[in-house]
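We modelled each protein-ligand pair independently. The example shown here corresponds to the zinc ion entry; the chain sequence is given first, followed by the ligand as SMILES.
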Amino acid sequence: MKAAVFEGNGKLVLTDRPQPKVMKPTDVLLRVQGVGICGTDLHILQVPPAHPARLGIIQGHEFTGEVVEVGSAAGEFSPGDQVIVDPHPGCGQCAQCRNGFPDQCITLIAASGEPGHPGTIGIFSDGGFATHVIVPFYGLYKLRKHVPTHLAALAEPLACVLHSVGKLGVKPGDSVVVLGAGPIGCLFTAVLRAAGASPLIVAEPSAYRREKAKQCGATRVVDPTKEDLAAIVREETGDGADVVVEAVGPLLVTAMHLARFAGTVLQFGHDELAEPKVPMKDIIKKELTIRGGFIGRYSFSRVARILESGALPLDVVVTHRMPLADVHKGLDLLRKQLALKVVIEP
Ligand SMILES: [Zn+2]
Ligand SMILES: [Zn+2]
């Protein structure tokens, strides 16, 4: 089968690989129907890399597919099922899994060989930039009715966003600011809009992305390089936003300034090198709540129901679909910020 393999030093090589086989009783063989290119894929392919990955693996961790073959102990799955994939399925047996943190699974982190990194499929083992992939059944969630496969490919980032939104407790009428309108910022916007956030202000320098944010439900979009974001947030909310979602990376301090007294800031943007100088008095005197959010946990079943409902404008987020042979074209579009989410259809 054709596969895109990480060969180090920024190289992703299209090559032939033997089709994987069901080996373990828990294995499920999937035919990949859609796989998103993630910002993390770009980080892996940076020189020097901004995210670790195992040499020689097939990349692609945001994928959906159809079950082709199942092992002897593969739960409720059978050939023909359309499934979404949790690419870091906890083992269910280690202390972290049993304490409710499957994304911190000790077995999975040991499998990555990188402290603190779960052994994500498509980063530390063969993933979805290929026609077929093996996933343990406990990383799969069935779609009960057909969902367009390019939209089902958003399941993993959507799971991350849902998990974090769940921590915020946003109620209808809560004012929210989202910093950044990349694919993640747009998914936050769509989910928060559905949760009733209003006003829902999105700050983003790119005009292309601001337009996407509007289509995802932003009540106002702001170009923070040309407009006074803080003044606009005050004008729209009175005394600052109830919730500020940082979906860029280094903007925690900006997010803190935009929050109201006793407001909540979610740091989701992931820049491992960022070390912002944090004004302590803002946390203390404004009684801010600052939360972190990382990968999706226990949210894939809800993601499946959301995908089936068609309730979110996910077709706004998927801007490009292309065959595996064009994966480099997709990567280039993302590097030049000419696409939001590129979905490869192997
Ligand atoms: Zn991703
Ligand atoms: Zn575990």
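The domain at 160-292 is CATH 3.40.50.720 (Rossmann fold).
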